[in-house]
Design goal:
- With 175 residues, this protein is an alpha/beta fold.
- The chain has one domain: Ribonuclease H-like superfamily/Ribonuclease H (Nucleotidyltransferase, domain 5), CATH 3.30.420.
- Helix content is 45%, strand content 16%.
- The protein has a five-stranded mixed β-sheet with strand order 3-2-1-4-5.
- A hairpin with a 6-residue loop joins strand 2 and strand 3.
- The longest helix is centred in the middle third of the chain and has 20 residues.
- The chain is globular.
- It starts with 5 loop residues before the first strand and ends in a 15-residue tail after the last helix.
């Protein structure tokens, strides 16, 4: 099994990020790519962030949540949201490929089953469960975006590197 740092992404306008080595607590953050300009500006900010992140702090593995197919979200999404989601996913995957870093795609139901015990919870409930799970582990997510990235990161560590965090702080105890 591979060892090293994992960068996990829950890609959206506000992208959840979890980064670190399995066996340690991940660093969590949310990156907001919004601006007052067109879609191309959003894509540009995402491209700059990802290229800079991989240049300055390259991981051994990048794991990105698989986007929901537009046909599955019919009636619950817009054309603009689809362009954003699929566009950002493509940008992130393309940059990872160009940097010759290993890329894995995380199926939503699979990482959720690993992290919150079930892959079929409705979106809002699953997001809250991810936040609660992070807090139980002693990780402090900014919001549901970084909490879901933490779930993706945890799944990737267990799946591709055979490791889960060793230091679990389930009841607020100090390390």
């Amino acid at each position: 099994m591979q060892r090293g740092k994992i960068l996990a992404l829950d890609v959206a306008i506000k992208t959840g990020v979890a980064c670190g080595r399995p066996g340690e607590a991940p660093r969590l953050q949310t990156i907001d790519f919004r601006g007052d300009d067109e879609l191309t500006g959003l894509y540009g900010r995402a491209t700059l962030w990802m290229a800079t992140k991989l240049r300055d702090d390259p991981p051994e593995l990048v794991v990105i949540e698989q986007p929901v197919p537009p046909s599955s979200a019919w009636g619950q999404t817009s054309h603009q949201t689809t362009l954003i989601t699929i566009g950002l996913f493509g940008i992130m995957c393309g940059i990872v490929h160009c940097k010759s870093i290993r890329l894995e795609i995380a199926p939503i139901s699979t990482w959720r089953k690993h992290f919150i015990g079930g892959g079929r919870h409705p979106g809002v409930i699953a997001k809250q469960m991810a936040i609660e799970r992070c807090r139980l582990l002693g990780w402090i997510p900014e919001d549901h975006n970084s909490a879901e990235a933490a779930g993706i990161w945890s799944w990737a560590g267990a799946t591709f590197m055979g490791r889960i965090p060793e230091a679990l702080h389930l009841f607020g105890e100090k390390a």
